[in-house]
Inverse folding.
């Protein structure tokens, strides 16, 4: 493994759109698809694509239910996702710290 | 270079995490509702001369509870319209933050309503309690509730809560020795009515159109 923390950053999370999704989900137990879309001002297609990538990595879980007879998709971080996000932040902090110390 | 990007990323993460925890439903309708009810309530109560201490306390308790229920229905309507759950984490946080002070206000009102009809209080003390101390206490507690909820709401709400607390304290300091019913009607109509209406109008023109929680 490359000892440079920059090269250890999780590439799934490092993409701007997915990082935004992970950040929003990290601060709250869950968010609906509409909430995420409105907060990030993403198109449905774009958000779906990023969510699928995060879901395939096992970082995000999607739950489909019905709310007042309307379909409701809820997104939440999985424990693996939370751990990966924490690890990602730790690495970013490490990069900042290294630069400050050198 | 990498360090700058890392710092930028951390900043973005922090901003987004804060944003996701913030309550984002449109507040203008609620503020306008509270203001309208406050003004109409004060006008109607004054015109109908509901100034007897017990009637005054009971009347405003009923108006307050009814306004709270309608406000919750408004939030529910907004949630339904946006196809989102009503009991979202931000809504939960706001209600949990405002809850204790609102509950204290409710208990204060119930106790005042009950006590002003009880024996040991003389007529003057009962009138002073209902028309003077009670409205001031309600303004302060309501301000505390708004201020606490403001930690999970857009900026400005906390300031509004702070202004209410300050106003309540100021009114308490300026409270006349024997406050007449007029004082009570003016405080309720002015603070809960006019102030909310003004804030609602301000929000109406400054809030983003498409709000979602």
């Amino acid at each position: 493994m490359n000892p440079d923390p920059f090269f250890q950053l999780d590439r799934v999370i490092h993409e701007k759109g997915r990082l935004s999704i992970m950040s929003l989900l990290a601060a709250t137990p869950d968010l609906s698809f509409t909430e995420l879309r409105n907060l990030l001002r993403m198109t449905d297609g774009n958000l779906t694509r990023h969510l699928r990538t995060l879901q395939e990595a096992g970082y995000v879980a999607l739950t489909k239910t019905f709310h007042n007879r309307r379909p409701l998709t809820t997104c939440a971080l999985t424990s693996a996702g939370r751990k990966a996000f924490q690890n990602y932040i730790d690495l970013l902090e490490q990069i900042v710290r290294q630069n400050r110390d050198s | 270079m990498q360090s700058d990007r890392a710092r930028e990323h951390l900043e973005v993460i922090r901003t987004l995490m804060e944003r996701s925890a913030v309550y984002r439903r449109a507040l203008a309708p609620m503020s306008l509702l509270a203001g309208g009810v406050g003004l109409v309530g004060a006008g109607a109560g004054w015109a109908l001369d509901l100034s007897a201490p017990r009637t005054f306390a009971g009347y405003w308790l009923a108006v307050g509870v009814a306004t709270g229920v309608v406000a919750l229905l408004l939030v529910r309507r907004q949630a339904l319209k946006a196809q989102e759950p009503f009991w979202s984490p931000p809504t939960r946080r706001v209600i949990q933050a405002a809850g204790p002070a609102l509950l204290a206000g409710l208990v204060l009102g119930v106790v005042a309503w009950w006590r002003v009809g009880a024996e040991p209080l003389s007529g003057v003390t009962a009138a002073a309690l209902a028309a003077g101390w009670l409205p001031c206490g309600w303004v302060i507690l309501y301000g505390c509730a708004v201020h606490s909820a403001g930690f999970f709401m857009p900026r400005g709400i906390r300031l509004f809560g702070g202004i209410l607390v300050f106003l309540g304290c100021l009114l308490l300091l300026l409270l006349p020795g024997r406050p007449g019913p007029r004082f009570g009607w003016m405080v309720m109509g002015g603070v809960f009515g006019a102030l909310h209406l003004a804030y609602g109008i301000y929000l109406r023109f400054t809030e983003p159109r498409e709000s979602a929680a």
